[in-house]
Amino acid sequence: MAFRILLIEDDAEIAEFVAQGLKEEGHLVELANDGHSGGHALSSSHWDLVILDCWLPGPDGITLLRQFRGEGKSTPVLCLTARDAVAQRVEGLNAGADDYLCKPFAFEELLARVQALLRRLPGRTGSEWRHYDVVLDLAINRAERAGKPLGLTAREQALLLHFMRYPGEVLSRTRLYEQVWQEHYDGLSNTLEVHVMELRRKLEAHGPRLIHTVRGRGYMLGDPASSEGA
């Protein structure tokens, strides 16, 4: 399953090595090579995981992490540190890092830490994602609501998964096209609307509406009680 990972690392060799390995695991990886570009990427997009080098030109990693947490962002952050920088590791954890890894490291260890952090994402238990009475089990490609199978297509399942990753967050049409279809939204296609309509139909056959339209902004997976005025 593909997750969106931001890698902020100024060492080109390490960045290429890590990014290539994560891409081979099926993840979508964006690179930033200094504190300025890293800070912009952190604030301008949505990530499932951030891998952050503590030593960066421009604002350093600890500064970026403090700013990120200060904005209320709860995205898991894995910090990369020098082996002998104990004080920096403590500082990073106190600033809001979820885990750290000392350089040099084996990719297998980094991957294990990445997978452990991704398993902690809200709504996820092992291979299952849950939101109210909706369960999506990726291990067996089964989605159900109130115990009833939904019979989703692969694209509908991918769309539901994206909603379940970000419950309560308004997802724009542009973002959904780029992250689910991995295509640029031209503003003309109604492909997304058709898929949302069909996904809603299948979900609402077994309960009240969960995917709400937020006029002028996009769609949101929310509380059944929030449908009024959506």
Structure description:
The longest helix has 14 residues, at 191-204. A hairpin with a 4-residue loop joins strand 8 and strand 9 (142-145). This protein has 2 domains: 4-118, Rossmann fold, CATH 3.40.50.2300; 124-227, Arc Repressor Mutant, subunit A, CATH 1.10.10.10. With 230 residues, the protein is an alpha/beta fold. The model has no long low-confidence stretch (mean pLDDT 88). Helix 6 (154-165) packs across helix 7 and helix 6 packs across helix 8. It has a 5-stranded parallel beta sheet with strand order 2-1-3-4-5, with helices on both faces. Helix content is 39%, strand content 22%. The protein has helices at 12-24, 35-44, 61-70, 86-95, 107-118, 154-165, 173-181, 191-204, and strands at residues 4-8, 28-32, 49-53, 77-82, 99-103, 124-125, 128-131, 134-137, 142-145, 148-149, 211-214, 218-221.
Name the features.
230 residues; Rossmann fold; alpha/beta; 5-stranded antiparallel beta sheet; 5-stranded parallel beta sheet; Arc Repressor Mutant, subunit A
**Shape type:** elongated
Q: In CATH terms, what is the fold-level topology of the largest domain? A: Rossmann fold
Oligomeric form of this entry?
Answer: single chain
Q: Count of DSSP E strands?
A: 12
Number of domains: 2
The sequence of SSEs as H and E is EHEHEHEHEHEEEEEHHHEE
Give the overall pLDDT as a whole number: 88
CATH homolog superfamily of the largest domain: Response regulator
Helicity range of the residues? 25-40%
Q: Based on the coordinates given, report the CATH architecture of the largest domain.
A: 3-Layer(aba) Sandwich
Task: List segments where confidence is low: pLDDT < 50 over at least 5 consecutive residues.
Answer: none
What is the highest CATH level, the class of the largest domain?
Answer: Alpha Beta
Distance between the termini: 31 Å
Task: Tell me the number of helical segments per DSSP (H or I, 4 or more residues long).
Answer: 8
Query: What is the spatial order of strands in the main beta sheet?
Result: 2-1-3-4-5
